[in-house]
Protein backbone atom coordinates (compact mmCIF):
# COMPACT_ATOMS: atom_id res chain seq x y z
CA UNK A 1 0.00 0.00 0.00
CA UNK A 2 0.96 3.61 -0.16
CA UNK A 3 1.53 3.88 3.57
CA UNK A 4 3.68 0.78 3.57
CA UNK A 5 5.78 2.14 0.74
CA UNK A 6 6.27 5.39 2.58
CA UNK A 7 7.34 3.55 5.74
CA UNK A 8 9.71 1.38 3.74
CA UNK A 9 11.18 4.45 2.02
CA UNK A 10 11.61 6.17 5.35
CA UNK A 11 13.28 3.08 6.79
CA UNK A 12 15.63 2.84 3.84
CA UNK A 13 16.38 6.57 4.09
CA UNK A 14 17.07 6.15 7.80
CA UNK A 15 19.40 3.21 7.14
CA UNK A 16 21.21 5.16 4.41
CA UNK A 17 21.57 8.14 6.72
CA UNK A 18 23.00 5.94 9.49
CA UNK A 19 25.47 4.29 7.10
CA UNK A 20 26.48 7.66 5.68
CA UNK A 21 26.97 8.96 9.20
CA UNK A 22 29.05 5.90 10.13
CA UNK A 23 31.14 6.39 6.99
CA UNK A 24 31.76 10.02 7.84
CA UNK A 25 32.67 9.08 11.42
CA UNK A 26 35.11 6.43 10.18
CA UNK A 27 36.68 8.90 7.73
CA UNK A 28 37.03 11.53 10.48
CA UNK A 29 38.60 8.94 12.80
CA UNK A 30 41.07 7.96 10.06
CA UNK A 31 41.90 11.61 9.40
CA UNK A 32 42.33 12.21 13.11
CA UNK A 33 44.57 9.14 13.48
CA UNK A 34 46.64 10.24 10.47
CA UNK A 35 46.96 13.74 11.90
CA UNK A 36 48.01 12.38 15.31
CA UNK A 37 50.56 10.09 13.64
CA UNK A 38 51.92 13.02 11.64
CA UNK A 39 52.23 15.09 14.80
CA UNK A 40 54.00 12.21 16.54
CA UNK A 41 56.42 11.88 13.62
CA UNK A 42 57.10 15.61 13.69
CA UNK A 43 57.66 15.41 17.44
CA UNK A 44 60.12 12.54 16.99
CA UNK A 45 61.92 14.49 14.27
CA UNK A 46 62.09 17.53 16.52
CA UNK A 47 63.46 15.35 19.33
CA UNK A 48 66.14 13.97 16.99
CA UNK A 49 66.96 17.47 15.79
CA UNK A 50 67.21 18.68 19.37
CA UNK A 51 69.50 15.77 20.23
CA UNK A 52 71.63 16.56 17.19
CA UNK A 53 71.87 20.20 18.24
CA UNK A 54 72.89 19.17 21.74
CA UNK A 55 75.65 16.94 20.31
CA UNK A 56 76.77 19.72 17.94
CA UNK A 57 76.91 22.27 20.75
CA UNK A 58 78.81 19.82 22.95
CA UNK A 59 81.34 19.21 20.17
CA UNK A 60 81.70 22.92 19.56
CA UNK A 61 82.34 23.53 23.26
CA UNK A 62 84.89 20.72 23.25
CA UNK A 63 86.66 22.21 20.21
CA UNK A 64 86.74 25.65 21.86
CA UNK A 65 88.13 24.14 25.06
CA UNK A 66 90.83 22.23 23.18
CA UNK A 67 91.82 25.31 21.20
CA UNK A 68 91.99 27.41 24.36
CA UNK A 69 94.20 24.82 26.05
CA UNK A 70 96.46 24.64 22.99
CA UNK A 71 96.80 28.43 22.93
CA UNK A 72 97.69 28.51 26.63
CA UNK A 73 100.33 25.81 26.13
CA UNK A 74 101.78 27.70 23.17
CA UNK A 75 101.90 30.91 25.21
CA UNK A 76 103.75 29.07 27.99
CA UNK A 77 106.19 27.60 25.47
CA UNK A 78 106.87 30.99 23.88
CA UNK A 79 107.38 32.55 27.31
CA UNK A 80 109.87 29.84 28.28
CA UNK A 81 111.76 30.27 25.00
CA UNK A 82 111.84 34.04 25.54
CA UNK A 83 113.26 33.65 29.04
CA UNK A 84 115.79 31.10 27.80
CA UNK A 85 116.87 33.39 24.97
CA UNK A 86 117.30 36.33 27.34
CA UNK A 87 119.39 34.13 29.60
CA UNK A 88 121.58 33.10 26.66
CA UNK A 89 122.10 36.74 25.63
CA UNK A 90 123.06 37.69 29.19
CA UNK A 91 125.39 34.72 29.38
CA UNK A 92 127.12 35.72 26.12
CA UNK A 93 127.45 39.32 27.32
CA UNK A 94 128.95 38.12 30.61
CA UNK A 95 131.47 35.98 28.72
CA UNK A 96 132.37 38.94 26.49
CA UNK A 97 132.91 41.17 29.49
CA UNK A 98 134.99 38.54 31.25
CA UNK A 99 137.17 38.02 28.19
CA UNK A 100 137.60 41.77 27.72
CA UNK A 101 138.74 42.08 31.34
CA UNK A 102 141.28 39.29 30.83
CA UNK A 103 142.62 41.01 27.70
CA UNK A 104 142.89 44.31 29.57
CA UNK A 105 144.79 42.63 32.42
CA UNK A 106 147.12 40.97 29.91
CA UNK A 107 147.83 44.30 28.21
CA UNK A 108 148.44 45.91 31.59
CA UNK A 109 150.90 43.20 32.60
CA UNK A 110 152.62 43.47 29.23
CA UNK A 111 152.99 47.24 29.56
CA UNK A 112 154.27 46.82 33.12
CA UNK A 113 156.80 44.23 31.95
CA UNK A 114 157.96 46.63 29.28
CA UNK A 115 158.50 49.38 31.85
CA UNK A 116 160.34 47.03 34.21
CA UNK A 117 162.42 45.69 31.38
CA UNK A 118 163.28 49.21 30.20
CA UNK A 119 164.40 50.18 33.72
CA UNK A 120 166.42 47.01 34.13
CA UNK A 121 167.91 47.35 30.68
CA UNK A 122 169.45 50.74 31.53
CA UNK A 123 171.62 49.09 34.20
CA UNK A 124 173.45 46.65 31.87
CA UNK A 125 176.09 47.20 29.32
CA UNK A 126 175.38 49.04 26.09
CA UNK A 127 175.84 46.10 23.70
CA UNK A 128 174.13 43.70 25.97
CA UNK A 129 171.37 46.24 26.55
CA UNK A 130 170.83 46.78 22.85
CA UNK A 131 170.78 43.05 22.09
CA UNK A 132 168.44 42.15 24.92
CA UNK A 133 166.25 45.19 24.24
CA UNK A 134 165.80 44.23 20.62
CA UNK A 135 164.98 40.64 21.55
CA UNK A 136 162.52 41.69 24.24
CA UNK A 137 160.94 44.26 21.98
CA UNK A 138 160.42 41.69 19.26
CA UNK A 139 159.06 39.23 21.79
CA UNK A 140 156.73 41.84 23.30
CA UNK A 141 155.52 42.85 19.85
CA UNK A 142 154.86 39.22 18.99
CA UNK A 143 152.95 38.78 22.24
CA UNK A 144 150.93 41.93 21.59
CA UNK A 145 150.16 40.89 18.04
CA UNK A 146 149.16 37.42 19.20
CA UNK A 147 147.00 38.83 21.98
CA UNK A 148 145.39 41.29 19.58
CA UNK A 149 144.67 38.54 17.06
CA UNK A 150 143.22 36.29 19.76
CA UNK A 151 141.11 39.14 21.08
CA UNK A 152 139.77 40.04 17.63
CA UNK A 153 139.01 36.38 16.85
CA UNK A 154 137.20 35.97 20.15
CA UNK A 155 135.23 39.18 19.59
CA UNK A 156 134.25 37.95 16.10
CA UNK A 157 133.15 34.60 17.54
CA UNK A 158 131.08 36.25 20.26
CA UNK A 159 129.57 38.66 17.74
CA UNK A 160 128.60 35.74 15.50
CA UNK A 161 127.05 33.95 18.47
CA UNK A 162 125.11 37.07 19.39
CA UNK A 163 123.81 37.45 15.82
CA UNK A 164 122.78 33.79 15.75
CA UNK A 165 120.95 34.31 19.06
CA UNK A 166 119.14 37.34 17.69
CA UNK A 167 118.19 35.40 14.56
CA UNK A 168 116.90 32.58 16.78
CA UNK A 169 114.78 35.11 18.71
CA UNK A 170 113.32 36.47 15.47
CA UNK A 171 112.62 32.92 14.26
CA UNK A 172 110.86 32.04 17.51
CA UNK A 173 108.71 35.17 17.32
CA UNK A 174 107.85 34.33 13.70
CA UNK A 175 106.95 30.75 14.66
CA UNK A 176 104.77 32.03 17.49
CA UNK A 177 102.93 34.44 15.16
CA UNK A 178 102.47 31.72 12.53
CA UNK A 179 101.22 29.27 15.15
CA UNK A 180 98.73 31.78 16.59
CA UNK A 181 97.52 32.61 13.07
CA UNK A 182 97.16 28.87 12.27
CA UNK A 183 95.24 28.31 15.52
CA UNK A 184 92.90 31.21 14.71
CA UNK A 185 92.30 29.87 11.21
CA UNK A 186 91.76 26.33 12.54
CA UNK A 187 89.33 27.68 15.12
CA UNK A 188 87.41 29.61 12.44
CA UNK A 189 87.36 26.56 10.15
CA UNK A 190 86.01 24.45 13.03
CA UNK A 191 83.29 26.99 13.81
CA UNK A 192 82.37 27.30 10.11
CA UNK A 193 82.26 23.51 9.76
CA UNK A 194 79.98 23.20 12.76
CA UNK A 195 77.69 25.97 11.48
CA UNK A 196 77.64 24.38 8.03
CA UNK A 197 76.77 21.00 9.55
CA UNK A 198 73.92 22.56 11.54
CA UNK A 199 72.67 24.41 8.45
CA UNK A 200 72.79 21.21 6.41
CA UNK A 201 70.80 19.39 9.05
CA UNK A 202 68.20 22.21 9.11
CA UNK A 203 67.85 22.07 5.34
CA UNK A 204 67.69 18.26 5.37
CA UNK A 205 64.95 18.27 7.96
Largest sheet: none
Specify the helix fraction band: over 70%
Q: What structural category arises from helix and sheet content?
A: mainly alpha
Rg is 50 Å
Number of separate strands: 0
Measured by DSSP, the beta-strand proportion falls in: under 5%
* N-to-C SSE string, H for helix and E for strand: HH
The pLDDT mean sits at 84
- Tell me the overall shape: rod-shaped
Query: How far from one another are the termini?
Result: 68 Å
Stretches where pLDDT falls below 50 for ≥5 residues? Answer: none
Can you walk through the features of this model?
97% of the residues lie in helices and 0% in strands. The longest helix has 120 residues, at 2-121. It is built from 2 helices and no strands. It is rod-shaped, with a radius of gyration of 50 Å. Helix 1 runs antiparallel to helix 2. It has helices at 2-121, 126-204. It is mostly helical.
Give a brief description.
The chain is an all-alpha fold. Helices cover about 95% and strands about 0% of the residues.
Fold blueprint:
Blueprint (H helix, E strand, L loop, with lengths): L1 H120 L4 H79 L1
Helix pairs in contact: 1-2
